[in-house]
Amino acid sequence: MRREITGFSNPTVKYLRSLRDKKHRKREGVFLAEGLRLLTDARECGHLPKMLVMAGGRDRHPLLDALEADVAAAGGDVIVTTPDILSKITGKDNPQAVAGVFEEFDTSVGSLDRTAASIWLVAQALRDPGNLGTMLRTGDAVGAGGLILIDDCADPFSVEAVRASMGAIFTQRVARASWGEFHGWLRQGDGQLVAASLRDAVPYRSAQYAAPCFVMVGNESQGLPEEYETACDLRVTMPMRGRADSLNAAVAAAVLSYEVLDTLER
Amino acid sequence: MRREITGFSNPTVKYLRSLRDKKHRKREGVFLAEGLRLLTDARECGHLPKMLVMAGGRDRHPLLDALEADVAAAGGDVIVTTPDILSKITGKDNPQAVAGVFEEFDTSVGSLDRTAASIWLVAQALRDPGNLGTMLRTGDAVGAGGLILIDDCADPFSVEAVRASMGAIFTQRVARASWGEFHGWLRQGDGQLVAASLRDAVPYRSAQYAAPCFVMVGNESQGLPEEYETACDLRVTMPMRGRADSLNAAVAAAVLSYEVLDTLER
To answer: Of A103, A121, A145, which one is at a domain's C-terminal end?
Structure first.
């Protein structure tokens, strides 16, 4: 159904704004994504929003028309509103011309097919949604299967994480599990668990990576718990030529993943 | 001088809070950095704050005592305040126990000694202070000389950039220049300018890097202007196995820098 909304106090606007809050997203089982490019990527990956929200009064774009047609054909809602209201919904001063409400995906680790990719990313207690979205984006770039979130991570369906993922939220699988669940699942099949570590580690450039390779990084300030590092099949070190003893978590995951990609394709 | 401040309306508190604003930082020629570890790193690199702000009523720490003694000996101010006020100053809910006001460094590109390091990072119109701080942190890790900011970048002295740099703001040189200034300076001596690009590029794993190597990344949404890519000595591509055609800017800089580091040390 297509309808126009121009009032800030409209219940649909309140509903949409509430989706910036994790509690409400969880209750509704949906999340917000914004931008024509991202929504087009989603559409091409088979993900249509159940609700499409567009700013009126802009020049039409063929991709936006295609998106609207598909959402309408699938029985979804199309909302036309003002740029100001769209800005309020997405929390951005210069909002994209369009946003969509998507159903959350199945995030159970048991639903992952580990044979679907040679590389998987694993994040433990990652607190920054920007880092999380950046890891999804890197995962897409290295052809990873997805991102597995261990313990208490930031919400991958937050507006910030979805934005930083640049669309990879729709191309990468996302799973959430406790360490015990993940580790139990991992050991039921093939899988090499790798982490950057200072404990009994080998140089990352000469390590023997094997598919499916699970590249794990830890919390931004604490790093990985010792028990998790010990459980890894391979611990690697990266050069640290300066004063710092660690990289940004998303950066470490990327440098390591690109090395794994090169090794596995060699 | 050591003094205690407990009122939010104290002029010093207002001054400190104003430093979260770029305009005020620029006028005063100073910036804020927070955290005992970061301030200790700064001290060990020869940077003492002209004003040290500590939350009272906490357990003393030998490193904090050492910091206070050095600041006092250098004629700096030591302010003891409440955790609430410190929180207001740094804009963080759970503030670090200490913050410092530092003089801004010389950021002229002409003051850089290119022979001091084999790798330099260059960012063009980078808008996200977190990305900028992360690049500084990566620069420290790969032993880079510093980060050169081209055109209209985020402020490297913002609280967010300093925080994300994890202390690298004190170990890396930071320079700011227009493209013309930078390019003119670069061509006055040795220096290989490298960027990730899709134009006439070679695979990043087999490229011939040469020191001093200047690794350049562009704006988060626009990438590098064509003219800047054309001016590079070397254009390299990184594998993109998914739908996305680019990496996060700080991630691209890191993956490329680690490759350059490995090549130059081989």
So the answer is: A103
Of all residues in chain A, the one with the smallest CA distance to B134 is A248
Task: List, for residues B202-233, the tens digit of each pLDDT value.
Answer: 999 999 999 999 999 999 999 999 999 999 99
In this complex, is the C-beta atom of A198 within 8 Å of any C-beta atom belonging to chain B?
no
In contact, A77 and A52? CB cutoff 8 Å: yes
Per DSSP, the residues of A109-167 read GGG--GGG-SEEEEEES---HHHHHHHHHHHHHTT--EEEEESSPPPTTSHHHHHHHTT
Domain interval for residue B189 = 109-265
Does residue A39 share a domain with residue A13?
yes
Q: Which of A103, A123, A151 is the last residue of a domain?
A: A103
pLDDT tens-digit map of A134-175: 999 999 999 999 999 999 999 999 999 999 999 999 999 999
- The token pair at B163 is 């925080």
What is the CATH number for B23? 3.30.1330.30
Which of A168, A240, A246 has its CB closest to that of B244? A168
Give B258's contacts in chain A (Cβ within 8 Å): 238-239, 255
DSSP codes of every residue in A205-233: TS----SSEEEEE-BTTTBS-HHHHHT-S
What span, in angstroms and rounded, lies between the C-alpha atoms of A254 and A245?
Answer: 17
ipTM here: 0.93
Verify whether the Cβ–Cβ distance A134 to B261 is below 8 Å.
no
Question: Furthest-apart CA pair in chain A: how many Å?
Answer: 62
